[in-house]
Amino acid sequence: MDGASKFVKGDAIAAIVITTINLVGGMIVGVLQHHMPISQAVSTYSLLSVGDGLVSQIPALLISISAGLIVTRAATEADLGTDVLQQLGRQTQAIRLAGIVVALLAVIPGLPKLPFLLVGGGLVLIATRSASRKAPEPEPEEVTGPPADSPRRWPGTCGWSPSNWKSRSTSWPSSTRGGAATSWTG
């Protein structure tokens, strides 16, 4: 993970330097070799330089996403594909929102309408079907009172009193798991 982060940082710095060189070099070439007015050279080559800078950041974005996926899935036993599908299946609102945003891109002039509408509609459809297939939440178990043989306590207390403070603070019950006592007896 550390190596991927360093790579992304170095790649971002290199992209800034390359974009600056493209911008300055493009203006010089535009004015001196193509005999463009300065304003037209700035307009043309700044647009090209920014576009090149954005395209050069796509690999860094993919590496960042990949590193995040690999780090977050380390706790499970399943393969990566199963983990990703399960996580996406649980986040139907995010998929629905992404579908709406992609479909709205079809409204922007100059962008192709059919691909954006198809992908956006497909994402909304997947989110809707995934939400309808969700298993119902299990009902919470009924909470019962303390066992009949437990010592009587005042309502709302956990059984601590000054008289038994010392004995409880020096000895732990034998039924502890993960540092939390599962039962206390007087």
Descriptors:
two-stranded antiparallel sheet; 62% helix; mainly alpha; 7 helices; 186 residues; 2 strands
Structure description:
The protein has a two-stranded antiparallel ribbon. The protein is elongated, with a radius of gyration of 31 Å. The protein has helices at residues 2-32, 38-56, 58-72, 80-90, 92-104, 113-133, 165-170, and strands at 176-177, 180-181. The longest helix has 31 residues, at 2-32. Helix 1 packs antiparallel against helix 2. With 186 residues, it is an all-alpha fold. Among the domains are: 1-72; 77-134. Helices cover 62% and strands 2% of the residues. The model has no long low-confidence stretch (mean pLDDT 75).
In round numbers, the mean pLDDT is 75
Assign a percent range to the helix content: 55-70%
* Count of distinct strands: 2
Poorly predicted regions are none
Describe the main β-sheet briefly: 2 strands, antiparallel
In short:
With 186 residues, the chain is an all-alpha fold. The chain contains seven helices and two strands; from the N terminus they run αααααααββ.
Task: Give the helices and strands, then pairings.
Blueprint: H1 2-32, H2 38-56, H3 58-72, H4 80-90, H5 92-104, H6 113-133, H7 165-170, E1 176-177, E2 180-181
Antiparallel strand pairs: 1-2
